[in-house]
Write a structure and sequence with these properties.
Helices cover 42% and strands 16% of the residues. With 328 residues, it is of the alpha/beta class. The protein has a single domain, classed as NAD(P)-binding Rossmann-like Domain (Rossmann fold, 3-Layer(aba) Sandwich). The strands form 4 sheets. The protein has a 7-stranded parallel sheet with strand order 3-2-1-4-5-6-11, with helices on both faces. Strands 7-10 form a two-stranded parallel ribbon. It has helices spanning 11-22, 60-68, 82-87, 89-110, 148-167, 191-200, 220-231, 251-262, 273-277, 292-298, 306-327, and strands spanning 2-6, 26-30, 50-53, 72-75, 113-119, 171-176, 179-180, 205-208, 214-216, 218-219, 240-243, 248-250, 268-271. It is globular. The chain starts with a strand and ends with a helix.
Length: 328
């Protein structure tokens, strides 16, 4: 098939491109490289089944042309990371919602199957753990920028499901829970690559808050497997589905595990949220997905553990260090 991946030079999008190229599909990636990296897809350049277009999904004319000629659309383009959201809230909201609006508009016009990723952030301050797709959503006040991302993604979900209800557009919404793995950078506050990189360099590992907040981390290979199954499963149309891993760990425990598994001499230091993000930052204490629906609909079952994730991320950083040394 011909498949379009918006944001395909990003962390998840590039792994998706790898998998789909490996299955023999023709892949077009559009990415403005604002948060994606050319290095993530450089190895695909020259493959006759791969095409990279460096442009924005806000380019209506181009997006109409790309969507009209494709069979499937994975709309992976989005602003990412808490740090980016706190620093550029206007860009975050505009990029997320306008981009999704453009994609859904043309997918609706040309009746194209489309997958729209959302985020565990939409559960907000919810305390009903594990989070189920039909749970009520509870976010904070609009004067707290921290919730802008969650609210923009929630609006994406409403729009996607509205298209399904009005015209039966074959659209799937997936809520991703802390997807991690090789190629993810810590540039936008992603905790696992930041911790692992600091541990490998024997530098202090910085934990925000008291470190008792609990999180779950899903390996990108497991998640990508779920995404490709979901878009090919008609029972998923018009549905919201969690993808991730339900293995839970505290952020302090994650820092300790990163130190142990890399044989690091790093120490853990703690910074308050106010010091990092400014006054009034709010966080959720636990974020655990219910994976029952994903398992029922597509047989989703994560096979890679947090240890696997840390090893894979550490190996990537070690390879990069070797390459940097060789080029020095």
């Amino acid at each position: 098939m011909k498949i379009l991946i918006t944001g395909g030079a990003g962390f998840v999008g590039s792994h998706l491109a790898d998998k789909l190229i490996g299955e023999g599909h023709e892949i077009t990636v559009i990415d403005d490289l604002s948060t994606g990296r050319y290095a993530n897809v450089e190895h695909l350049e020259g493959n006759p089944n791969f095409r990279l277009i460096i442009d924005t999904v806000l380019n209506d004319k181009l997006m109409e042309e790309l969507i009209r000629e494709t069979d499937r659309v994975f709309h992976m383009a989005s602003a990412v990371g808490v740090r980016l959201i706190m620093e550029q809230p206007v860009k975050t909201i505009e990029t997320i919602f306008h981009g999704t609006d453009v994609v859904l508009k043309f997918c609706s016009r040309y009746r194209k199957r489309v997958l729209v990723p959302s985020t565990s952030e939409v559960y907000g301050k919810g305390v009903s753990v594990p989070f189920k797709e039909e749970d009520d959503l509870l976010t904070g006040s609009t004067d707290k920028h921290r919730w802008a991302y969650a609210c923009a993604k929630t609006l994406d979900e409403f729009l996607a499901i509205a298209h399904w209800k009005e015209t039966r557009l074959p659209v799937i919404v997936v809520r991703l829970f802390n997807t991690v793995g090789p190629r993810q950078t810590g540039q936008y506050g992603m905790v696992v690559p930041n911790f692992v990189k600091s541990a490998l360099n024997n530098q202090p590992i910085t934990v925000h808050g008291d470190g008792n907040q609990q999180r779950c981390f899903g390996h990108v290979f497991d998640v990508v497997e779920g995404l490709t199954k979901a878009i090919e499963t008609p029972e998923c149309f018009g549905q919201v589905i969690n993808f991730g891993n339900d293995e839970e760990i505290s952020i302090k425990g994650l820092a300790e595990k990163a130190i142990e598994m890399t044989g690091s001499k790093s120490e853990i230091k703690y910074l308050s949220y106010d010091e990092v993000y400014g006054e009034g930052f709010e966080d959720m204490q636990r974020r655990v997905p219910s994976l029952e629906k994903a398992k029922r609909l597509v047989g989703y079952q994560p096979t890679r553990t947090l240890d696997d994730i840390i090893n894979d991320v550490a190996n990537q950083f070690r390879e990069e260090l070797k390459t940097d040394s060789a080029n020095a």
